Amino acid sequence: MSFASLGLSEAIVRAVTERGYSEPTPIQKQAIPAVLSGGDLLAGAQTGTGKTAGFTLPILQRLSTTPPKAQPRGFPPIRTLILTPTRELAAQVEESVRHYGKYVKLTSMVMFGGVGIHPQIDKLKKRVDILVATPGRLLDHVQQKTVDLSHVEILVLDEADRMLDMGFIHDIKRVLALLPKQRQNLLFSATFSDEIKRLADGLLNKPSLIEVARRNATADNVAQKVYLVDRERKRELLAHLIKEHSWRQVLVFTRTKHGANRLAEQLSKEDIPALAIHGNKSQSARTHALAEFKTGRLQVLVATDIAARGIDISELPHVVNFELPNVSEDYVHRIGRTGRAGADGEAVSLVCVDEQQLLKGIERLIKRELPKEIVAGFEPDLNAKPEPIQNGRGSRAGGNRGGQRPSVNRPSRKPAAGSDGKQGHHQPQHRSGGRHR
């Protein structure tokens, strides 16, 4: 099956071909016709399945073949609004819009916090057909009356499950209240939790349902492995593995921002080029680190879970869990950064005695036991006693979400780092310890 056979114009197919794609992925085969039909869509797709093209391509097709309904006074209308949970994902999606839409006469822009608002205001004074935004910065513009959402024809909620995890539900509802009632709604989520189902029930009108991957499934082409090691020797083992196997492009996950900084510094001292990316880094530092990593000039990128959303590298060979995530589903999201679009990948987890319950929770979730190895010279102490994982992160050992989260009503003192980096819209903290990373 070709992209042209799905109903896409020659101009859009040409742009897709130039990006090196000739055959649509399973999610694209189903989503593109569904979006072109004009109806609402609820799509379940793991990261790396090609879902971004699954909605950007038909949106470009629809907008390029139909004129805008009205031209109000003041700021030009936004015709499509795409909401994403993080800056990096917003930038990635808008980049896809530009690449795929290079031969059609449509304009786009990306909007997120952590950078100056005035250049964004200047862009909004010109025509913007497709706006990709994080919720908080979008509401900053709404407050300043610099964006017009009253003519949006298509709304996309991308990685909706992560937006709910990050406490954006109230911001999403505020945005929905500003949109016209007659519009097309597309909701993409890696998982269909009870909360996602409730959101979909209130948002979507007789949607088409697409689910291309079993919930919480891990890609078959990602080789998963666990190395058992003492907590104090994880860094040493990681450096050994990188050097021993000549790993050239490695995405490493830590639980905390401080841990990411420290690990990147330690690896750099061992002549392994490494940088950290997380919510406390400036947007320019995050953009620089990601660009260096994508081009291969940076050997190791150390990231927290939230900051890594939107890292889309077509052939990323290695993902390392330096520390297991507290929430089991985050393991699936993490290792989904490799093995994308059919490429092979390797996911390695360094597991100490403290994390045995987290490991069991992950294995229950993915319904398989992960192979375990011990590297000669790094044998763990069999008599070591587990210690609590610091800052409350051990309070949910096993990490199975099960749709139940602690109800915390107090506002956080900081914005959801790694998302908007903005001030002024307080997000409730839904998770104990380290979720806003």
Describe the model.
It is a single chain. The protein is α/β, with parallel strands linked by helices and 437 residues long. It is 34% helix and 14% strand. The protein has helices spanning 10-18, 26-36, 51-65, 87-100, 118-124, 135-143, 160-165, 169-176, 194-203, 234-244, 257-269, 283-295, 305-308, 328-335, 356-366, and strands at 41-44, 80-83, 108-111, 130-133, 154-157, 184-189, 208-211, 222-228, 250-253, 274-277, 300-303, 318-321, 345-351, 372-373. α2 packs parallel to α3, α3 (51-65) packs across α4 (87-100) and α14 (328-335) packs across α15 (356-366).
**Helical region count?**
15
Query: What is the share of helical residues?
Result: 25-40%
- Which CATH architecture of the largest domain is right? 3-Layer(aba) Sandwich
Q: For the terminal residues, how far apart are their CA atoms?
A: 41 Å
Rg from C-alpha positions? 22 Å
Uncertain runs are: 391-437
Overall CATH class of the largest domain: Alpha Beta
Number of domains: 2
Globally, the shape reads globular
Count the E strands. 14
Strand order of the largest sheet: 3-4-2-5-6-1-7
The CATH homologous superfamily name of the largest domain equals P-loop containing nucleotide triphosphate hydrolases
Order of helices and strands: HHEHEHEHEHEHHEHEEHEHEHEHEHEHE
Average pLDDT confidence is 82
